[in-house]
Amino acid sequence: MTQQRPKISVMVLMGGYTSEFGISLKSGGVVCEELDRTKYDVYPCIVTKDQWYYQETPLLKHPVNPGSLSITKGDQIILPDVVFNTIHGSPGEDGYIAALCELLNIPQTSTHFYAAALSFNKRDCLSVLKAHGIPCAASIYCDSVHPPQFKEVSEKLGLPFFVKPNRSGSSYGVSKVNLEKDYQKALETAFAEDHQILIERALSGVEISVGAYSHQGKPIILTPTEIVSENEFFDLSAKYEGKAQEITPARINEETVLRVQKLVRKIYTLLEMRGACRADFIVENGQPYFIELNSTPGLSKESLIPQQAKYSGLSLKDFFDRLIQEAMNQQKTTQL
């Protein structure tokens, strides 16, 4: 008689402390829905500033200890074998969850804490990548105490330019400034999300996004997706209200595809990324310019990484399985 192998307990963390809370719930919900229940016991766990809890049913929840990631279910204490991190923003995308899991010796599906913290901070990430030859748009960094005057920005960057929070995602707080009268409102919108902001030259060209993930210890670079927004740029409503075309594969020539994929491979390797991430670019006059790196990208069915995984021939079930197995294998390798 064949003995049945015990299931792996997977804690799917979602929610978080930022404006991306609802988007994270969508990502986490898809992961819970798609994971193979013959292999995994799945525990959807929601993180808020007030409490962490395991949502067993819509009406039944159990406390999660943020210090040990243990679930208390009556007299039972459940410890995860692996954490599937789907928190966009803090504390999932900025390295806190990765650091906690490392301290607790629990494998987790996103990148290590340093790469997460670095990529979440746009200024710092751009500084590192520029130093290694990655083309980036000209930009100005500032905080809420000393925002630059419009004249200074327009003389250095030209018009139009973008004002964006330094540490945020899903285009929350991002504005495009075409005229001087738009500038003050753009500052207020960005500072509502973060006291640090980045002001960046508006590139004119084709916007593309490229996913990457680790499989058997090697980076796999996915096919680029082209983004055509109905709005002035790929803002919140374009991303989540269907006001953009997302075309996979991107309508760019093969030379540009290979060039962008080479840049993504370089970034992934340089930062020693793990798990799935997504790099965004704008191709201006044939030159791809790096915009930002998302270390905990959206995983809802309409998100870009799932679209690219599907194009590569992977179902979401198989893709998520790869991320879990890679995290567990990475943990074993680290312990050797």
Structure report:
The protein has about 325 residues and is of the alpha+beta class. The protein has 3 domains: about 110 residues, Rossmann fold (3-Layer(aba) Sandwich), CATH 3.40.50.20; about 150 residues, ATP-grasp fold, B domain (D-amino Acid Aminotransferase, Chain A, domain 1); about 60 residues, ATP-grasp fold, A domain (Dna Ligase, domain 1), CATH 3.30.1490. The protein has 10 helices and 17 strands. The chain has a 7-stranded mixed beta sheet with strand order 6-5-4-3-2-1-7, with helices on one face. Strands 12, 13, 14, 15, 16 and 17 form a 6-stranded antiparallel beta sheet that branches.
Kindly state the percentage of residues in helix: 25-40%
Which runs of at least 5 residues are low in confidence (pLDDT < 50)? Answer: none
Distance, first to last CA? 33 Å
C-alpha geometry: globular
- Biggest sheet overview: 7 strands, mixed
